[in-house]
Amino acid sequence: MSLAQSVVVVTESSHAGLYGSLAVDNAGIRLVSAAGLSAAIGPSDPDIVILDSGADADGGITILGEIKALRNDLPVIFLTDSSSEETVLKAFRKGAREYFRKPVDLHVLQHAVETILALRRMQRESRAPLKRHDSDPITLPDDLPEAIGRAVMHIKSNYDCALYLDDLARAAHLSKFHFCRNFKKYIGVSPMRFMTMVKISKAETLLRRADLTISTVAYKLGFNDPSEFTRQFKNITGISPTEFRRSCFI
């Protein structure tokens, strides 16, 4: 049985109505003000924060920084009434996992919350079989060793960060040599190739959002150079991000 998870929503009372209909299976939802934020965040609770900055995007960026200072591992979904590319980049630089401009479709927000919670739940239940989801870029074998499963989950949970072989081998509790050999044996590609495939799979979802520029998508996925993102995207998909986006809005 999965342990109950916790979602904290940081918002002013005037914006609380949006979250009254938010329902996530086996997760409690608490609404707090910015003033009560520090008391609501402990060493292992909550599992995710939804930060609604309202019209004060810059103030929200400041609060985001405070949240990450309290717990850097805590995923934060950032929402704001007004937006610009500069604000989006600031939010991602401060550590936001997702970014939405309001009004936001409640089903889209709920899906984002459920996806992050599922990843965190699978990290906690590290001995449970790693199940394949429709969004997985590669079919995972049923006999996947626990060590390799831990590395796969580490990649999926940190797709927006720069990861290195040392990080992944450490997550698998294996030497770098044995990790690379076993990863390719069971997954079929190298760890770094798999990481790129996970990033590009996520990019395909983000590029369908008209509110995010291609440069912003690249930055969010850990590419400091948009041209490198374009090269990797075309290498995996066969087309450029611009061509992919154009096909989504035909």
From TrEMBL:
Keyword DNA-binding annotated: yes
Gene Ontology MF: a single term: sequence-specific DNA binding
Response regulatory domain segment(s): 1-117
Stretches assigned to the HTH araC/xylS-type domain: 149-247
Signal peptide: none
Superkingdom: Bacteria
Keyword set, alphabetical order: DNA-binding, Phosphoprotein, Transcription, Transcription regulation
GO terms for biological process, alphabetical: phosphorelay signal transduction system
Family matches, as InterPro entries: AraC_XylS_family_regulators, CheY-like_superfamily, Homeodomain-like_sf, HTH_AraC, HTH_AraC-typ_CS, Sig_transdc_resp-reg_receiver, Tscrpt_reg_AraC-type_HTH
Pfam families: HTH_18, Response_reg
Keyword Zinc: no
Modification sites for 4-aspartylphosphate: 52
Protein name: AraC family transcriptional regulator
Organism: Geobacter hydrogenophilus
Lineage summary: Bacteria, Pseudomonadati, Thermodesulfobacteriota, Desulfuromonadia, Geobacterales
